[in-house]
Amino acid sequence: MGNAEIISRVEQLPRLPKAISELLDTVNDDNAAMELLAEKVSHDALISAKVLRMANSARFGRSREIGSIDEAVIRLGQQPLRILVTASAITSAIQVAPGISPVEFWGRAFEVAFFSQELAKRAKLRGDTGFTCGLLHNVGELLLALLEPAKWQQVQAAVAKGADLQQLCMHLIGTEPAEVAATLAAEWRFSDELVEGLRYQNDPVLAEKRSQYAQIIFLAKLIIDGWPQGPQEERTSWLAQVADKYGVRLQLDGLAVKLESLVGSGVEMAKQLG
User: Fold this and answer.
1) Of 120, 116, 45, 110, which Cα lies nearest the Cα of 84?
2) 41 φ, ψ (degrees, to nearest 5)
3) Rounded to an integer, what distance in angstroms lies between the CA atom of residue 262 and that of residue 224?
4) Nearest to 110, CA basis, from 272, 273, 270
5) Stretch 167-189: mean pLDDT
6) SS3 of 257, please?
């Protein structure tokens, strides 16, 4: 099956439920009042429950448990609440394919999301866009598992033996997970910069125009998979070398300590989804 046919099938997948679509529109509107966002979240019991579970996790938790969405608005603030609502909406809209562990899949997605958020802020980009990029970065793999289950099993078996995921997907299925993720994000009306970030996440230099969010996702995955052991000074030096190699300017002060604190936070958040 070729790229065009796969992409066509992705485009024909069910649209986001209207309530979730409207909720994400509100989240992405910088001028939207937090009271309006809280009201929309409160209308969806499933998303409300997810937001509160994640708000009370160790990652976002406060000394006293948050008991309502209105309280979350007051105690968390605008940026963390937007991130929690985005995470709750996306994870509610996407069903994990049979044979894939939800905690493992979303654990990786959240881990890349948290790293991408921090790196985006350190690169003077939008942290919330970085987070959403990270959360959606591997959704193409999930969709290919749903659309082409037999071929995806072949891909997974070969990758487990050391084969390259992207090359194998092109050979067996006719497209790459990153392209599928970008197509879904475009169908869901996310910003062009987010869509391009997903599309070029595995090779940012291929983008016609520089895609800063592609660089951020690429760097986040590289850091997570290659995070060295050792003193803080060595880690900071390693981060500086990696960022310089791939053309990303980062504020490095305290970055190694911050990223170290994020290790394992993805699985922790995934366990809160219920």
Assistant:
1) 110
2) -65, -40
3) 10
4) 270
5) 91
6) helix
What's the confidence (pLDDT) of residue 62? 63
Q: Which domains does the chain have, with CATH numbers?
A: 3-270 (1.10.3210.10)
Measured CA distances, 192 to 32, 97, 205, 210, 217 (Å): 20, 27, 17, 13, 15
What does the alpha-carbon distance between residue 271 and residue 249 come to, in Å, rounded to a whole number? Answer: 33
pTM: 0.88
Q: Could you tell me which of 112, 46, 86, 99 has the C-alpha nearest to residue 274?
A: 46
- The per-residue pLDDT of the chain, averaged, comes to 88
Asked whether the predicted pLDDT for residue 5 surpasses 80, the reply is no
Per-residue tokens: 178: 């990153």
Output the pLDDT for position 141. 93
State the number of CA atoms in the 13 A half-sphere of 78 facing the CB: 12
Pull the structure tokens for residue 26. 């509100």
**Closest C-alpha among 231, 75, 205, 201 to residue 140:** 201
Distance, in Å, from the CA atom of 203 to the CA atom of 196, rounded to the nearest integer, reads 11
Query: CA gyration radius for the chain?
Result: 18
> Given this model, what pLDDT does residue 198 score?
97
Tokens, residue 163: 């084969």
∠ CA 12-17-18, rounded to 5°: 115
pLDDT at 250: 95
